[in-house]
Amino acid sequence: LIAVGVEPNTSFISGIEKNRSNAIVVDKFLKSSIPDIYAAGDCATHYHRIKQLDDFIPLGTTANKQGQLAGLNMVGMEHPFRGVVGTGVLRFFGLTLARTGLAKKEVEDLGIEYETAMVKTMSNASYMPNASSLHLKILYDPKTNRLLGGQAVGAGADKRIDVLATALYANLTITELLDLDLSYAPPYNSVWDPVQQLARKTFSTKKLPR
Question: At residue 77, does pLDDT exceed 70?
Fold first, then answer.
């Protein structure tokens, strides 16, 4: 399996600011460095809310959002692009893998102090016939208790990553995850959602600020 990544096809545009991935640098209104030229989607930069930097994460969801906003901004209906948190999901031979926020290498490259917490649990109530294993990991700042990122592998990984992505967008702390009112019924979840199981595990190891 070889994953070589992608590079935006922007070579036909000269005199415009690009980043190291050759993506066109845009502001929050999708304007480029050349007046009246907008860029969106896989050829443009994407502001990363956690890094607080322009990034390049080409995904269909982001392309659709930026494309719509660029069109609105062109006709004077100004609305800013609020940025991404690095959320993605894929299925590999029946196995679901998902991520959001910062991974270990990204945190280390940014020089952010961090700790990790992991839990191996079940996708829903363990006595249900459809219960499957789920691995969940988070990265957080031990000083501020700020959530930095998360990864999940297994059944229900997509649901838990979306919870973590929303928490990242709202800048929630690890302990605030415990206060979320998440849905529960045995076929779908445990009494404590896996995200909250992980938060409880983190909370039990040290006294965290609320």
Answer: yes
Decide: pTM greater than 0.85: yes
- Over 60: is that where the pLDDT of 104 sits? yes
Q: Which residue has the tokens 């929303």?
A: 166
Q: Do residues 177 and 119 make contact, with C-beta atoms less than 8 angstroms apart?
A: no
Distance CA 22, CA 10 (A): 7
Beta strands at 53-55 and 115-122: parallel, antiparallel or unpaired:
unpaired
CA 164/CA 162 separation, integer angstroms? 5
Residues whose CB falls within 8 Å of the CB of residue 157, separated by 6 or more in sequence, listed in order = 89, 96, 97, 98, 134, 136
Among left, alpha and beta (phi > 0; psi -120 to 50; other), residue 37 is: beta
Would you mind telling me the total number of residues written for the chain in this entry? 210
Residue type, 111: G
In this structure, are residues 136 and 160 in contact, taking their beta carbons and an 8 Å threshold? yes
Task: Show the DSSP H helices in the chain as ranges.
Answer: 60-74, 104-110, 157-169, 174-177, 194-205
pLDDT of residue 165: 97
DSSP tag of 124: S
Tokens of 123: 């996708």
What count of other Cβ atoms lies within 10 Å of the Cβ of residue 92? 9
CB of 79 closer than 8 Å to CB of 68: no
